[in-house]
Amino acid sequence: MGGDAGGCPMTCPDGQECRDGMCMPAAGCGPDSMCPIGESCCDGTCASLPGDPNNCGACGRVCEGRANRCTSSQCRCNDLPQCEEGSTCCPEGCADTMNDDANCGGCGVVCPAGQGCIAGSCEDLPCDPACAAGEVCDVGTSTCQCAGGAACTAGDVCCSDGCQDTQTDPANCGGCGVACPAGEVCTEGGCGAVPCDPPCGPGLTCNAGVCGCGSGPACGAGQSCCSGTCINTSSDAANCGSCGRACGPDEGCCSGGCRNLRTNIDHCGSCGRACGSTADECVDANCRCQGGAECLFECVPFFGCVPA
Question: For residues 119, 125, 130 and 135, what is the CA-based torsion angle, rounded to 10 degrees?
Answer without folding.
Answer: -140
